[in-house]
Every structure is written in C-alpha cells, then in structure tokens.
C-alpha cells in the first residue's frame, strides 16, 4: 500500500522481528519491520510539509487496515499504549529534523526501542 500511495517502490525492507508489547501488557506479540524509501522531493521542498503529507498517508493506511481511535494519554500527559492492528511510524526523513505538534522526526523514542533499532539497522545504508 505504501508503494502505491508514495508513488515509488521501497528500496529496502528488513526482516520481521517478533517482540513482546512495549509500554503495556498483552497476550499478543508484535511484528516489527522497517522499510526504506527514496522519495522524489520537489526542488525547494519544505521538510515539515512533506513529512506531514507522508504522515497523513500512513494514518490513512492504518485506518484502512483496521486501526481505530486516536492516541490516549494519562493525567500526566504520558501516552497510553494498547493493542492495535498496525502502527506505521516515520522514523527518519533523510537528514531533516521535524518538530511540530503532529510529527517529530527523528522519532523521539526510537533509540530506546530495540524493536525499532534492530530492523532499522538492517536497512540503513
């Protein structure tokens, strides 16, 4: 689906990594993977605008694959994690840094999560 929506095939995909849930308890295991794309960006592009457009594509795919609801937070503002059919995160966007309400790139928790870093290391140049 991402290939179609982004208009280009991926350039690398990691192997699948099965892990325990992170941040909550569940009987379900998670399947994790990383995918790399080389996007054709317009000359003079705005990384934040492009990143938000890609985020919108990812969120739409999540909905089509059965994800419902919005993230929930506790009284301290900490994210409450739960089972979900799919979760697509934008980890990196070239060398760009994006920090806005909807999107932070590089992903702020990726370095704390082996289930992210192991597949990501597989596909890095």
SSE topology:
Layout: H1 2-6, E1 12-13, E2 17-19, E3 30-32, E4 35-36, H2 47-64, E5 72-73, E6 79-80, E7 98-99, E8 104-105, H3 114-123
Give a short summary of the structure.
The chain has 125 residues and is of the alpha+beta class. It has helices at 2-6, 47-64, 114-123; strands at 12-13, 17-19, 30-32, 35-36, 72-73, 79-80, 98-99, 104-105.
Structure description:
The protein is of the alpha+beta class and 125 residues long. Helices cover 26% and strands 14% of the residues. The chain is built from three helices and eight strands. The protein has helices at 2-6, 47-64, 114-123; strands at 12-13, 17-19, 30-32, 35-36, 72-73, 79-80, 98-99, 104-105. It has a two-stranded antiparallel sheet with strand order 1-4. Strands 2-3 form a two-stranded antiparallel ribbon. Strands 5-6 form a two-stranded antiparallel ribbon. It starts with a helix and ends with a helix. The mean pLDDT is 92.
Largest sheet: 2 strands, antiparallel
* Order of helix and strand elements from N to C terminus: HEEEEHEEEEH
Hey, roughly how much beta strand do the residues contain? Answer: 5-15%
Cα shape: globular
Outline the low-pLDDT stretches.
Answer: none
**Helix/strand structural class:** alpha+beta
Kindly state the number of beta strands: 8
Average pLDDT number: 92
- What is the CA-CA span between the terminal residues? 23 Å
Radius of gyration from the CA trace? Answer: 15 Å
Helix content: 25-40%
Q: Give the strand line-up of the largest sheet.
A: 1-4
Per DSSP, the total helix count is 3
């Amino acid at each position: 689906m991402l290939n179609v929506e982004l208009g280009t095939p991926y350039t690398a995909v990691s192997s699948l990594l099965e892990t325990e849930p992170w941040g909550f308890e569940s009987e379900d295991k998670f399947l994790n993977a990383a995918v790399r794309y080389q996007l054709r960006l317009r000359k003079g592009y705005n990384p934040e605008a492009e990143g938000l457009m890609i985020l919108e594509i990812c969120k739409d795919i999540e909905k089509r694959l059965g994800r419902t609801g919005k993230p929930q937070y506790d009284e301290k503002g900490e994210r409450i994690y739960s089972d979900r059919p799919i979760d697509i995160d934008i980890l990196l966007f070239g060398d760009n840094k994006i920090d806005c309400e909807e999107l932070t790139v590089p992903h702020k928790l990726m370095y704390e999560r082996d289930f992210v870093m192991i597949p990501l290391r597989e596909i890095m140049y």
